[in-house]
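FAQ

Q: What does a record look like?
A: Structure on top, sequence underneath. For example:
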């Protein structure tokens, strides 16, 4: 990750102040704050009026309305991998071209219902729908990124081991497409200045920063003078980037890390080492992981959360090539709340298991037990997927820690977590 200082740092801060940087992303379509968080204390004052014969005491009650504590629900999902079969599934819904939005039909209401929804777009995007390809050297049609925007994502992490599959020009093309379709991103940049500028969202009047980095580029090397194209994991640089974001006004910093070992549920040593160097710092507040293609545990470091791996959200992986759990993923939602000191904290995580239905057009299914709206065989698989995900993701924490699972967070519903953590 390239993070040169001096004049570039000054340019970054100035760009934030004037709102000139393309990487400063403000989102302000706030949802209604829970009325239970509105506190209306009363104060009483007395005034005395004296006449020649009597003394009259008048009591006046003044009611002060305290602004509600700010809250927000953040949402993260797993790898979006446009394998050839996934691209063909999108082509079934458009003639000519592609339409991937039907694949998100079941999960779309949950994505749209979050205050801030972030996807993980793992591959290059073709600028003109030419030279398309799937694994191992990806290049996806523009409609793949457009679908992410259309189903409700507010931004995406881009840094992954496939980010440089199409070289420097492919990285620039991806950035160009994201800009043209109006979908904010983190983890790639077209210039040093853009790389230094914090990616910021305003959500329910909370300023949230997003950082994205990857462990590898599958052996590809960025040009020496263009190291900003894709951010690589460097804990010192990530913490410094988070510090810049907080100096620019961020109140909560999320770091998306493309890390771990493929098809392994348990974090590997490099994940532990990077986590220990990043999350305990004052600058970083949450880590969300990708790349393993299977779900990994959710845990805490002190009072701060780490989602080690959210699995695959849309791909063609299965037991045929990999492991059965590569069809599993989850929708992870993080509940933020302002404390009495005015600081923003993550007070809990709720997750909903998902499964890619390869046999029915690559629809992303909610892995809810007891479903009757799908064939019996599919319902049984969804229940197995739910059990697999539960066993892994909740292996370290329980509801007592603030980790919950299931289908209690419907769009617009209040959190399943307690109104206070006292």
């Amino acid at each position: 990750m390239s993070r040169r200082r001096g004049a570039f740092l000054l340019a970054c801060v100035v760009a934030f102040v004037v709102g000139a940087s393309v990487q400063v992303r403000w989102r302000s379509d706030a949802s209604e704050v829970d009325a239970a968080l509105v506190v209306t204390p009363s104060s009483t004052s007395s005034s005395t009026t004296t006449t020649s014969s009597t003394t009259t005491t008048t009591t006046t009650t003044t009611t002060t309305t305290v602004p509600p504590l700010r809250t927000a629900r953040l949402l993260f999902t797993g790898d979006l991998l446009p394998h050839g079969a996934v691209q063909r599934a999108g082509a079934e819904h458009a003639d000519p071209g592609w339409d991937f939005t039907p694949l998100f039909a079941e999960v779309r209401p949950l994505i749209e219902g979050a205050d801030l929804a972030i996807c993980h777009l793992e591959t290059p995007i073709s600028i003109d729908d030419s030279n398309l390809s799937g694994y191992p050297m990806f290049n996806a049609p523009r409609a793949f990124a457009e679908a992410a925007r259309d189903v409700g994502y507010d931004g995406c992490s881009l840094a992954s081991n496939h980010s440089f599959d199409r070289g420097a020009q492919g990285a620039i093309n991806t950035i160009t497409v994201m800009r043209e379709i109006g979908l904010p991103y983190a983890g790639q940049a077209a210039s040093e200045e853009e790389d230094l500028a914090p990616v910021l969202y305003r959500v329910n009047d909370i300023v949230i920063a997003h950082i994205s980095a990857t462990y590898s580029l599958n052996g590809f090397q960025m040009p020496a003078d263009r190291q900003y194209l894709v951010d690589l994991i460097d804990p010192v640089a990530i913490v410094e980037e988070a510090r810049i974001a907080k100096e620019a006004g961020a109140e909560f910093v999320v770091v998306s890390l493309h890390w771990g070992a493929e098809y392994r549920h348990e974090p590997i040593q490099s994940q532990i080492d990077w986590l220990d160097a990043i999350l305990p710092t004052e600058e970083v507040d949450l880590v969300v992981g990708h790349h393993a293609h299977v779900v990994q545990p959710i845990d805490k470091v002190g009072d701060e959360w780490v989602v080690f791996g959210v699995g695959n959200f849309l791909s063609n992986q299965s037991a045929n090539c990999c492991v059965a759990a590569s069809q599993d993923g989850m929708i992870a939602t993080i509940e933020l709340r302002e404390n009495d000191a005015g600081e923003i904290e993550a007070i809990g995580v709720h997750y909903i298991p998902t499964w890619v239905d390869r046999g029915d057009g690559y629809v992303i299914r909610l892995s809810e037990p007891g479903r009757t709206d799908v064939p019996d065989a599919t319902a049984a698989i969804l229940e197995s997927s739910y059990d697999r995900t539960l066993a892994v993701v909740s292996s370290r924490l329980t509801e007592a820690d603030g980790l919950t699972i299931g289908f209690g967070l419907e769009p617009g519903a209040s959190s399943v977590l307690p109104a206070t953590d006292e």
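Q: Is there anything notable about this one?
A: The first strand starts at residue 42 and ends at 50.
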